[in-house]
Amino acid sequence: MGNTDMPRNPHVLVVEDEPDLANLYGAWLDDDYSVETVYDGADGLEAIDESVDVVLLDRRMPGLSGDTVLDTIRERSLDCRVAMVTAVEPDFDIIEMGFDDYLVKPVSSDDLTSVVDQLLLRSTYDDQLQEYFALAAKKALLDAQKTEAERSASQEYDQLTDELAVVRTKVDDTMEALFDQDVYHRLCQDISRNAT
Question: Which of 75, 107, 139 is the last residue before a domain boundary?
Answer without folding.
Answer: 107
